[in-house]
Design brief:
Radius of gyration: 20 Å
CATH superfamily of the largest domain: MutM-like, N-terminal
Family: Belongs to the FPG family.
Protein name: Fpg/Nei family DNA glycosylase
CATH topology of the largest domain: N-terminal domain of MutM-like DNA repair proteins
CATH architecture of the largest domain: Alpha-Beta Barrel
Cofactor: Zn(2+)
CATH class of the largest domain: Alpha Beta
Domain Formamidopyrimidine-DNA glycosylase catalytic: 2-100
Order of helices and strands: HEEEEEEEEHHHHHHEEH
Shape: elongated
Domain FPG-type: 248-282
Number of strands: 10
Amino acid sequence: MPELPEVQALAEFLAERTTGHAVVAADVAAIAALKTFDPPVTALVGRTVTGWTRHGKWLDMSAAAGDGDRIHLMFHLSRGGWVRWKETAPTTPVRPRMGGSSRGPALALRVRLDDGSGFDLTEAGTRKRLAVHVVRDPQEIEQVRTLGVDPLSDAFTPAAVAALLEAKNQQVKGLLRDQRAIAGIGNAYSDEILHVARFSPFKLSRSFTDDEVRALHDATVTTLRDAVATSSGKPAAELKDAKRAGMRVHGRTGLPCPVCGDAVREVSFADRSLQYCATCQTGGQVLADRRMSRLLK
């Protein structure tokens, strides 16, 4: 799933190529991906792209009419979605589909611009979670309106982290992934942040000392800023590989930890897994690989 660094890079990549260009076609292929009906997707046609913004893991393309009226194409790529840029976008008609079981990338939305370029939103896998909205104000979308603090904003301070940790006694990995608390971090970067900070993913939030709060804050900011710097300027087609190549523990089960050389370990759940280094993060204790494991505190 694309997270804050990749979404930020996509926003920059698309802004550079689309800003100032008019939309000449916006065609929906996957009906289930479209979550709104007013304004319709066709309202994008004839408007000029004025910029791109990131809201957590959401991408926001603003498009204005000649009279200044502005609407937003908003989308969340979820687990299987992606943006595929095309210097020459196909002009063949897009055939809407109601569903399907294809595991390969399937077209959900195609946007074509006045210079012939454009982009496709696609989604792979059988579980379709890509969400596309066309709205007048991003705050109309509940998931955007209720986003927590952006970890790269000035509001993300050690004091803000301390308040989030104290608000509810929960596992720190769950807090990092909670979009209503901190916007933009998912499964991969929460693993990376906790490895840098040297905390168990199951450490309880109210157990953090002042020094540990600062360590978690610093690890979060440093990890995400480094990932944004790595992703920035890369074409959309290269971002997934760049993300995988930059991981320290996430997705590296069985490989050596880059800090201590111990084998990276995994805890599997029903639909996801987490990775960690026992030497660096849990004092050498191996976490039981089952949902009802006894959690480290």
